[in-house]
Specification:
Belongs to the DNA mismatch repair MutS family. By secondary structure, this protein is α/β, with parallel strands linked by helices. It is built from 30 helices and 26 strands. A hairpin with a 4-residue loop joins β8 and β9. It is elongated and about 135 Å long.
């Protein structure tokens, strides 16, 4: 190893610091990779694997990519889960003495990509930090492309489930954590369910004091109280460690991450992993595509910034009546004023993604085209503000007042950057003429150098009288004046002899040397001056990052409102009445996605749920009749109302719900060793443990994964539990094939029967897609099987078996159980009332005790008596 070359010694020293990264090592115009990195990269990128001498007998495996086209290669590696360390030459090779200094300038990971050509502009690219401790969990999430930074913590027994829900909501590209979390079953579940690679980082960075110091240093503050983080130890640990990780990998200015927001899950409607998947909010269950999701229907945004914000709105519906109605009023005004909306759309359509442009500006990797795009984006902000001044709704008026027109930013870029700048910032051609006098002089020298030399030649001929005097150039002397020997007596005293030839003499003058320096150095000086000026302009823009980010947010909100108004107009949606009551009443409701796919052929249905008479609707009917669609449309209409959207209905009154739970469809989780039925029961358990009387439950075919009697028993018991106001009492749509459950109407308070209307024609059925009062007396399974194309012999035999089974008359048994169930519930209610009375008496007795006046013996005796009474309850 003593014979190793100096360059490879340098490579090994740097690689040692970045063992877990693929090291892109800059050599001239290429990024080279060596040894194992080269083997991996050549395979993943499908590029040739070669070798390089490095002072040993065997050549080092090597491959490389051109530095000017490296972004695409890096993106492919990061997409496959690799980290890429970019090692640059940090000094000019022309002036370097010996080996050029190199160092890693940035580590690119899935959660820290900022290249717009790689990212989906309609989605945030989040990195999530999870801190696990004996007291609970802290999480922090950041999008380095926009500067968004949020944190929260969970200490309850349901903390692990909430981590899962938040991971589903943010859908991070990368997750970092402490080593304690990495060893938990939850970490494994997240890794498998979300296909995430988990990185554990130095646990010392998660220590509270270290994390706190990291945040104080970044935000340049003395306390974290302004961020609402007092006593939020777990949140501080998670966010401080994440900020350390970002500093370590980005090695760059992160000033665009200018604030840290502490949030609570109570700020928004909670949606667990299953509900997000089942309702297909942002992607479909099967293809994982946006097309076919609720977002695809609602997204008519004109900007990438608006598209990202609308996705957030869909993923986190509001719980505040005031905020919801504020949005609805804004949508209503744009809905009613087509001309206003079209004017706003036209302006928004001309805007680039200046929220993400600003991250590149702060990172100092934005080029002149980025600044030109920023200028073109903010150019019409004054006009947008003028248009918004016509708005009457309080929300749009507030947005008008808060919209910063950024006129000084526009003026700076317009005066300095040319209209169509080049891609590279190192080759000149970016700065507008007239912006800098010195630069203009060099530019003129470059463009007019030949003309200036000809002019000087003519002036010298006239001044000296030497008609054949010539001004020439070579690489040795530069520019010189050549005079034939026959005219040497005419040479002025100010000429300085440089060379004698056989037939002529060559001279220089101070004026010629000055012009030479101007002409020959013009190109290099133009490039250097332009780059320095561009960096100054870019830094001036970066200093305004908070203003520009907030302006981008205001523009995004306006874009979301116009998008919702546009969809409402095109799809004939109505403004819902949203309040804090307990009624969900929908007249002529339609499924937003299915209706769009059916192009107007959708059959609307009504829904009515409240806390008293109709809090649980049992829906029976055959498969394919539309039960699942009906229930999902109800959930989606409620959700749309709570994001501030108009809804697909003739009329809607929505009492705000705190959570929407869905249990729809069947799926195995074989990797976790769970069958379809086990998955179903796990999801039902989650609902029963977490639903409240303010929740909306969508349950489809509970108990179908096991035997008929087992399934019916479970479904029955679940219904009783949900309907009981002392347990849950949530508004519920419960679809089932067990039409025996219809017996519960009249036996359980708040339960009503509904069914999907079906018309029989001989042995066939026609689905009418209409919900009506009453229960179905059978499931039409054999008829549906006939429609599916089962052989006639199978269909006939199914009919014979069905008649034999019906003879057992399970319905009679169900009626008997329903009566017993009602009597048992009344008895249980009486027992509970007695328990509550005794409990209250015991609490009163405890509250009247004067503990401070008791002796230790008296206190123990009193405690013993109270314990006896408590055991007797």
């Amino acid at each position: 190893m003593a014979k190793i070359t100096p360059m490879m010694q340098q490579y090994f020293e740097i690689k040692e610091q970045y063992k877990h990264c693929l090291l892109f090592f800059r050599l001239g115009d290429f990024y080279e990779m060596f040894f194992e990195d080269a083997v991996i990269a050549s395979k993943e990128l499908e590029i040739t694997l070669t070798g390089k001498d490095w002072g040993q007998e065997e050549r080092a495996p090597m491959c490389g990519v051109p530095f000017h086209s490296a972004d695409g290669y890096i993106a492919r590696l990061v997409e496959r889960g690799y980290k890429v360390a970019i090692c640059e030459q940090v000094e000019d090779p022309k002036t370097a003495k010996g080996l050029v200094k190199r160092d890693v300038v940035r580590v690119i990971t899935p959660g820290t990509v900022v290249d717009n050509t790689v990212l989906d502009e309609t989605k945030n690219n989040y990195i999530l930090s999870v801190f696990s401790s004996a007291n609970g969990y802290g999480i922090a999430v950041c999008d380095v492309t926009t500067g968004e930074f949020q944190t929260t913590e969970f200490r309850s027994v349901q903390a692990a489930a909430k981590i899962l829900d938040e991971t589903a909501r943010f859908s991070p590209a990368e997750l970092v954590c402490n080593s304690e979390f990495l060893s938990t079953p939850l970490a494994k579940e997240i890794e498998e369910r979300f296909h995430l690679y988990l990185n554990d980082i130095d646990s010392r960075m998660y220590e509270y004091n270290t994390a706190k110091d990291t945040l104080l240093a970044h935000f340049k503050v003395k306390t974290l109280e302004s961020f609402g983080l007092q006593k939020k130890l777990l949140a501080v640990s998670a966010s401080g460690a994440l900020m350390w990780y970002l500093n370590e990998t980005q090695k760059n200015d992160l000033s665009h991450i200018s604030a840290l927001k502490y949030y609570t899950t109570g700020d928004f409607m909670l949606l667990d992993v299953s509900s997000r998947r089942n309702l297909e909010l942002t992607e479909t269950m099967r293809e994982k595509n946006k097309k076919g999701s609720l977002l695809s229907v609602l997204d008519k945004t004109q900007t990438a910034m608006g598209a990202r914000l609308l996705r957030k709105w869909v993923e986190q519906p509001l719980l505040s009546k005031e905020e919801i109605n504020q949005r609805l009023d804004g949508v209503e005004e744009l809905f009613q004023d087509l001309f206003l909306r079209e004017e706003i759309k036209e302006i928004l359509h001309s805007m680039y993604d200046f929220e993400r442009i600003m991250s590149r500006v702060v990172y100092q990797n934005a080029n002149a085209r980025d600044l030109a795009a920023l200028k073109n984006s903010v150019e019409n902000l004054p006009l947008l503000k003028k248009i918004l001044s016509r708005c009457k709704s309080p929300y749009l008026s507030t947005l008008h007042d808060r919209l910063d027109t950024l006129e000084n930013i526009h003026a700076l870029i317009a005066q300095s950057i040319v209209e169509d700048p080049p891609f590279s910032v190192r080759e000149g051609g970016m700065i507008r003429e007239g912006f800098n006098e010195e630069l203009d002089t060099y530019t003129k020298a470059k463009e007019n150098g030949t003309t200036w030399i000809h002019q000087l030649e003519e002036e010298e001929r006239e001044k000296t009288g030497i008609k054949n005097l010539k001004v020439r150039y070579n690489k040795v002397f530069g520019y010189y004046i050549e005079v034939t020997k026959s005219n040497l007596e005419l040479v002025p005293e100010g000429y300085i002899r440089k060379q004698t030839l056989a037939n002529a003499e060559r001279f220089i003058t101070p004026e010629l040397k000055e012009l030479e320096e101007l002409i020959l150095g013009a190109e290099d000086k133009i490039t250097t001056l332009e780059y320095d000026m561009f960096c100054e302009i870019r830094n001036a823009v970066a200093a305004e990052v908070e203003r520009i980010q907030y302006c981008a947010y205001i523009v995004s909100v306006i874009d979301c409102l116009q998008s919702l108004a546009e969809v409402a107009q095109n799809r004939s949606y109505v403004k819902p009445l949203v309040d804090d009551g307990d009624v969900i009443e929908i007249k002529g409701g339609r499924h937003p996605v299915v209706e769009k796919m059916m192009d107007g052929q959708f059959i609307p249905n009504d829904t009515y749920l409240d806390r008293e008479d109709t809090r649980l609707a049992i829906i029976t009917g055959p498969n394919m009749a539309g039960k699942s669609t009906y229930m999902r449309q109800t959930a989606l209409i409620v959700l749309m109302a709570q994001i501030g959207s108009f809804v697909p209905a003739e009329q809607a009154h929505i009492g705000i719900v705190d959570r929407i739970f869905t249990r729809v469809g069947a799926s195995d989780d074989l990797s976790a060793g769970q069958s379809t039925f086990m998955v179903e029961m796990t999801e039902v358990a989650n609902i029963l443990h977490n639903a409240t009387n303010k929740s909306l439950l969508i349950l489809d075919e509970i108990g179908r994964g096991t035997s008929t009697f087992d399934g019916l028993s479970i479904a029955w018991a679940v219904l009783e539990y949900i309907a009981d106001t002392k347990q849950i009492g949530a508004k519920t749509l419960f679809a089932t094939h067990y039409h025996e459950l219809s017996e519960l109407e009249g036996k359980l308070s708040g339960v009503k029967n509904y069914c999907i209307a079906v018309q029989e024609q001989g042995e066939d059925i026609i689905f009418l897609r209409k919900i009506q009062r009453g229960g179905a007396d059978h499931s039409y399974g054999v008829q549906v099987a006939r429609l599916a194309g089962l052989p006639n012999k199978v269909i006939r035999r199914s009919g014979q078996i069905l008649k034999q089974l019906n003879a057992a008359d399970i319905t009679k048994k169900a009626k008997q159980i329903a009566v017993e169930s009602k009597e048992q519930q009344e008895e249980t209610a009486q027992q509970m009332d007695m328990f509550h009375i005794a409990e209250t008496q015991l609490a009163d007795e405890i509250s009247k005790l004067d503990v401070m006046a008791m002796t230790p013996i008296e206190a123990l005796q009193t405690l013993f008596e109270l314990q006896k009474k408590a055991k007797g309850l």
